[in-house]
Specification:
A 7-stranded mixed sheet has the order 1-7-6-5-4-2-3, sandwiched between helices. The chain folds into 4 domains: 213 residues, Type I PLP-dependent aspartate aminotransferase-like (Major domain) (Aspartate Aminotransferase, domain 2), CATH 3.40.640; 91 residues, Aspartate Aminotransferase, domain 1 (Alpha-Beta Complex), CATH 3.90.1150; 134 residues, HAD superfamily/HAD-like (Rossmann fold); 76 residues. The chain starts with 50 loop residues before the first helix and ends with a helix. It is an alpha/beta fold. α10 packs across α11, α12 crosses α15 and α14 crosses α15.
């Protein structure tokens, strides 16, 4: 048997038999028992060899193996790129850009020309071309489709970038991580042998669904790939990852990947078309995600509500992407679609009455104070009432008043407390404290609610039916469906009242309320929970609010698109 050179491919060698590989200090003549547990176990005793995979990728793209470099995820390729830039290559980066590039500029303290995006978040092609024209031996990073927007770059535009860069002895680093989801094909086969100033980054993480194997690859002219090869670790990809990737490149798995991507394209179009139809700003995308921009409160509420339902969305809190949500498109879209419709275009919106539609601080709260004074000769203050309401379970003012009396060691039955309370609140001739109530909801929102044709509005309140009816009249919402204290066996925080309405109309619902009980009822009915009253926002969020608004009137801007 001849002597192996340093470049000999020994992937087929076994750790058993008369051959001993003693050049790399591997455990070569007695396998670890663990190797028998894996289908590629006979390869685990030796250092990994990425060359077979690089050759396979090269063959599929009409390239030579020297034009391909496999990396530990796309991240390693980007890290090496940042090192090359740090060593003296000027960088041009049009925005918005993938966070790994902007983070790289910041963490490596790169001297970079950052090109601001346009108002529609598209990259500024003209400004980028000017920057390339003004910089010798530079590298420009482009992403096609772009992340986070999904914007594509046409082949014609890409050629213009390449030709402009070539005149300045510069090159283009093109990130095609999402290209399989695009209606346009990769430019690897068409442009790599035409332009020697192009490097393309691809990955197994997205379309192949193999993010866990951490495998990306670069393709380009040998002279551009070589600096990356020189700077990467010699055994940068584990053998299991390489073996899985080789299987992924087989024809049957390629077909599966292509069919998957076709479904994602179709689903992307369905969701995008619907979002646009209800007035949501959606950025055109050729990737496996959609970027949409919502008002601040809506963006927060949508993310929170979907998270409760075990669907996670990406949000952005800085710069031009603030208030944007990024939704990765799933293969099965039914659950996502249903929850998005509920979050953005509900069929049912439930409204609490007291503290939401009506200011009861001079009626119910004052009746509570007067009842306690009359029955115990003790004076209580507003903070005592508020403290109890924050605990939850005291949405009913009679129950709350009785609890205050119990704390004073004054034992009265609920019926006794209710009788005195109602005499003070209603009065003998309807001349009680109820007359102090004033609407909180403004006429503009009242008009939108009364004119709504696509969304059913309803009141879910702890008031008795008669008083709830008077309350509806006070705020000019006479025609709204009503679930009062008399209509349920269990008051809030039980979701019973909301669930009664859901059975009649739709489970696609919101609930707006000002206290812990309202939020718990919303969560119990899987309604999007909207808290009212920023002074209690911590408690409302803890109880399950998806968003807390200053007042119910802040809801008005949300109702424009859903009622068109």
């Amino acid at each position: 048997m001849g002597v192996l050179s340093d470049n000999t491919n020994s992937s087929s060698l076994s750790a058993s038999g008369d051959f001993l590989k003693l050049d790399f200090n591997e455990r070569s003549d007695k396998n670890n028992p663990l190797t028998s547990e894996y289908p590629f176990g006979d390869l685990l005793w030796q250092y990994p060899d990425r060359q077979p995979l690089e050759k396979k990728i090269a063959d599929l793209n009409n390239l030579s193996s020297d034009q391909v470099l496999c990396t530990n995820g796309g991240d390693e390729a980007i890290m090496i790129l940042m090192r090359i830039i740090k060593e003296g290559t000027p960088l041009i980066l049009p925005l918005p850009a993938f966070s790994q590039y902007t983070w790289g500029v910041k963490s490596w303290k790169q001297q970079a020309v950052l090109i601001d995006g346009q108002s529609n978040l598209a990259i500024d092609i003209d400004a980028t071309l000017v920057a390339i024209n003004n910089s010798k031996q530079s590298v420009t990073i482009l992403t096609r489709p772009n992340n986070p927007t999904g914007e594509s770059i046409s082949i014609e535009t890409l050629k213009t970038f390449l030709e402009t860069a070539k005149k300045q002895s510069s090159w283009i680093f093109l990130d095609e991580a999402y290209i399989e989801f695009s209606d346009e094909s990769s430019v690897a086969s068409s442009l790599l042998n035409q332009y020697d100033n192009l490097v393309i980054l691809r990955t197994f993480s997205k379309a192949y669904g193999l993010a866990g194997i951490r495998l990306g690859y670069l393709m380009g002219a040998e002279a551009l790939i070589e600096p990356f090869r020189e700077r990467c670790m010699p055994f940068n990809i584990p053998t299991p990852s390489l073996q899985i990737a080789l299987r992924a490149m087989q024809e049957s798995n390629q077909l599966e990947m292509k069919n998957y991507c076709q479904t994602i394209r179709e689903n992307r179009q369905k969701i995008s078309s619907w979002l646009v139809s209800i007035g949501v700003k959606v950025f055109p995308s050729q990737a496996n995600f959609l970027l949409l921009k919502l008002p601040t409160n809506q963006a927060k509420a949508v993310k929170s509500f979907l998270a409760k339902n075990r669907i996670l969305l990406r949000t952005f809190t800085e710069g031009e992407l603030i208030d944007c949500l990024r939704i990765s498109i799933p293969y099965c879209i039914e659950r996502l679609f249903d929850l998005l419709k509920q979050a953005l275009q509900p069929q049912l919106i439930c409204l609490d009455m007291d503290g939401v539609l009506i200011d009861t601080s001079s009626s119910y709260d004052e009746a509570t104070k007067a009842t306690v004074l009359q029955l115990s000769n003790n004076t209580i203050v507003q903070s005592q009432i508020d403290d109890l309401k924050r605990r939850g379970g005291y949405n009913n003012d009679w129950v709350l008043t009785k609890r205050l009396l119990d704390d004073l060691n004054c034992q009265f039955s609920l019926d006794e407390v209710t009788k005195v309370f109602q005499e003070i609140y209603v009065g003998k001739n309807n001349d009680g404290l109820m007359n102090n109530e004033v609407p909180l909801i403004q006429s503009a929102l009242v008009s939108k609610i009364n004119q709504s044709t696509k969304t059913q509005f309803a009141v879910v309140t702890g008031r008795p039916y008669k008083e709830a009816t008077i309350g509806k009249k006070l705020v000019n919402l006479n025609e709204l469906e009503l679930v009062s204290l008399d209509d349920v066996e269990l008051p809030k925080p039980s979701p019973e009242g909301i669930q009664k309405l859901q059975k009649r109309f739709s489970s696609s619902s919101w609930m707006c309320g000002d206290n812990l009980d309202d939020m718990q009822a919303a969560v119990g009915s899987n309604s999007l929970a909207i808290g009212i009253g920023e002074e209690n926002q911590d408690i409302l969020y803890q109880a399950g609010a998806d968003i807390v608004l200053k007042s119910i009137n802040d809801l008005e801007e949300w109702l424009c698109p859903i009622n068109q």
